[in-house]
Write a structure and sequence with these properties.
CATH architecture of the largest domain: Orthogonal Bundle
Largest sheet: none
CATH topology of the largest domain: MetI-like fold
Number of domains: 2
Helix content: 55-70%
Radius of gyration: 28 Å
Distance between the termini: 53 Å
Order of helices and strands: HHHHHHHHHHHHHHH
Shape: elongated
Strand content: under 5%
CATH superfamily of the largest domain: MetI-like
């Protein structure tokens, strides 16, 4: 009995329109990375938090200046000093009441000293607004960290691309230089620049930048060694493209994900390093405030006025944590092997 071909159906066969239908739109590398990043809720929250913080730091220049943050009434220091946070609302710990050293009950320093103004974050030991000083300290810490990271980016990417592209004995010598610089403790470099330039923002930025680019250079050099053997790079060389143009058009764009992730990890490290330097009196000069110097100035008052340490410490931890979480999210987003849960 002859088989009827109409009784057989090819599995998966559909009409031509269905076969040509694209079920999922094609995405570029950056669109796909953004799609994967949005799956990480902590990274997205951290991103918007950092956008808000950076925007606030820029806008605050217009209403909270360095002079306003350092201003205090020398005739009424005793009246305004060490006032607790007061939001004007009956919120425990934020209602303007505290337990004075040696006292058994809480008191209201605002009422006792006839202070009409509410200081939302309290005051320090000479009556300066802690809220204004935290805002200025936030600006200084971000300025130091971002400036140092930008210098790291320029030096590290240039050095890493050149070392990996040249290869051979040039690469060997350049990597030995990195190893030598890595063996020098950062604290020695900072102390040296502090003696040469004096304690201040400039010396801290230079000190952090002069050693901070080493990790970036290693990462970029490793990526360059891998990318320079790719077909599109070999084709560009065959067409007579210069090394500089190949680096700018092909190498750096294809390692942009790695560079961005490294930047996200470098910024919180620079912020923490600046805080440590300020805590050991190698940071910014008084009365200029940074988050580290605020913590250092108030550490002796931790037992009696803990808010003076906890508030700048909390800001420092939140910003550093946000950068780290965003960096982790970007690392997964830029990884082509990452898969959706």
């Amino acid at each position: 009995m002859a088989a009827n071909t109409e009784d057989f159906v090819i599995v998966g066969a559909q009409n031509s329109e269905a076969n040509e239908h694209i079920s999922k739109p094609a995405l570029s590398f950056w669109q796909d990375a953004w799609r994967r990043l949005k799956l990480n809720k902590l990274a997205v929250i951290s991103l918007w938090f950092l956008v808000f913080i950076l925007g606030f730091a820029l806008v605050s220049n217009f209403f909270v200046t360095q002079n306003k943050a350092n201003a205090f009434d020398s005739d009424n220091v005793g009246k305004y000093k060490n006032l607790p946070p007061n939001s004007g609302l009956p919120i425990p710990g934020w209602d303007g009441k505290l337990k004075e050293p040696g006292a058994t009950d809480t008191t209201d320093p605002y009422k006792n000293n006839n202070v009409k103004q509410n200081f939302i974050l309290g005051t320090d030991n000479i009556g300066r607004s802690l809220g204004k000083r935290v805002i200025v300290g936030l600006r200084i810490s971000l300025l130091v960290a971002i400036s140092a990271t930008f210098i790291d980016l320029l030096i590290g990417v240039t050095y890493g691309v050149f070392s990996g592209w040249k290869g051979g004995w040039v690469d060997v010598v350049m990597q030995r230089i990195i190893e030598i610089l890595s063996s020098v403790p950062n604290l020695i470099v900072v102390t040296m620049f502090g003696l040469l330039l004096g304690n201040g923002v400039t010396s801290i930025i230079i000190a952090i930048a002069i050693t901070g680019w080493l990790s970036m250079a290693r990462q970029v050099r490793n990526m360059t060694l891998s990318l320079k053997e790719r077909d599109y790079v070999l084709a560009a060389k065959s067409l007579g493209e210069s090394s500089t143009k190949i680096a700018i058009k092909h190498l750096i764009p294809n390692m942009a994900g790695t560079i961005i992730v490294q930047i996200m990890m470098t910024v919180p490290s620079a912020i923490m390093f600046e805080a440590v330097l300020s805590a050991i009196n190698l940071g910014v000069k008084p009365p200029t405030a940074s988050l580290g110097s605020l913590i250092s100035d108030a550490q002796s008052m931790l037992q009696f006025y803990p808010y003076q340490v906890l508030i700048p410490s909390g800001v420092l931890v939140l910003i550093s944590l946000a950068f780290i979480l965003l960096g982790d999210g970007l690392r997964d987003a830029f990884d082509p092997r990452a898969s959706e849960d």
